[in-house]
Specification:
Number of helices: 9
Largest sheet: 6 strands, mixed
Radius of gyration: 28 Å
Order of helices and strands: HHHEHHEHEHHEEEH
CATH superfamily of the largest domain: Periplasmic binding protein-like II
CATH class of the largest domain: Alpha Beta
CATH architecture of the largest domain: 3-Layer(aba) Sandwich
Number of domains: 2
Structural class: alpha/beta
Number of strands: 6
CATH topology of the largest domain: D-Maltodextrin-Binding Protein, domain 2
Shape: elongated
Strand content: 15-25%
Distance between the termini: 70 Å
Length: 211
C-alpha cells in the first residue's frame, strides 16, 4: 500500500478494514482461489481415475444389472484386481443387423460405436449372438483363439466355432447361468487387443464362472 492508503486504512473500523482489503485485493484473491481450485481438481481427477484393464462389448443381447456386474466388477474381484483403481469398460445394449435388414438409427449408431471402439483399441472382448458373430467375422475383427483357451473348454456346454475365432457358450452355462438369455452366445477376442492375457483369462472366467 502507498503512504496515503495506509493512513486511510488505519482510520477505518475493523469491519471497514476487512471490506477495504477485500476490495483492494479482489483480483489477486480471485486468481489465487482459481489456481487453487484448478490444482485441487487436477489432483482429485488423478487420484480418482481408474485404469481400464479390459474393454468388453455385449452385442445383440440384453445384460441386466446382475449380469452386467458379473461381467465387469465381479471379474476384477475374482482376478484379484483392485476395483478401486481399475475398471472394465463395459459397453452394453449394442445392436448389429445384417445388410438385408432394416437398419434403425440405434443399430446404425451401435455399428459406428463398435467400429470406433475397435479402431481406438478400446474393445478387447466381444460377447454376441451368432448374427453379430458373423458380422464381426466378415470384418476380420476377431483373432484366432489360442489353443490354451480352447484346451480347457467345459464339456457339453462350450465348443469352438468352425473358424476357430470364438467359443460358443451353450445352455446358459458358466457366468451366464440363470441369466435368462435364450440362444447361444459367441465369445471372441478382438484382433488388435492390447490385453491378450487378460482377455484370455476373461474368457475362462465367462465359461467356468471362476478363474
Amino acid at each position: 500500500m502507498k503512504t496515503e492508503e495506509k493512513k486511510v486504512f488505519r482510520s477505518l473500523s475493523p469491519k471497514a478494514r476487512v471490506r477495504y482489503i477485500l476490495d483492494y485485493y479482489k483480483l489477486p484473491l480471485f486468481l489465487t482461489a482459481l489456481v487453487l481450485l484448478i490444482c485441487v481438481s487436477v489432483i482429485h481427477a488423478k487420484m480418482s481415475r481408474k485404469d481400464a484393464v479390459l474393454g468388453v462389448a455385449a452385442v445383440n443381447f440384453e445384460a441386466g444389472p446382475v449380469l452386467t456386474r458379473k461381467l465387469s466388477s465381479d471379474f476384477l474381484t475374482e482376478a484379484g484386481i483392485d476395483p478401486g483403481r481399475n475398471k472394465i469398460n463395459f459397453a452394453g445394449k449394442l445392436v448389429l443387423t445384417g445388410k438385408d435388414e432394416d437398419v434403425s438409427g440405434y443399430a446404425y449408431a451401435s455399428s459406428l460405436k463398435i467400429i470406433a471402439m475397435i479402431e481406438a483399441r478400446q474393445m478387447d472382448v466381444a460377447i454376441m449372438n451368432e448374427k453379430a458373430y458373423r458380422i464381426f467375422l466378415a470384418g476380420n475383427y476377431l483373432q484366432k483363439l489360442d489353443p490354451k483357451i480352447t484346451a480347457s473348454l467345459p464339456k457339453d456346454n462350450a465348443v469352438l466355432s468352425e473358424e476357430g475365432k470364438a467359443v460358443i457358450c451353450r445352455n446358459n452355462s458358466g457366468i451366464f447361468r440363470d441369466s435368462g438369455i435364450s440362444g447361444d452366445l459367441y465369445l471372441g477376442i478382438i484382433s488388435n487387443t492390447d490385453h491378450p492375457d487378460t482377455a484370455a483369462s476373461y474368457l475362462h472366467y465367462l465359461l467356468h464362472g471362476h478363474l
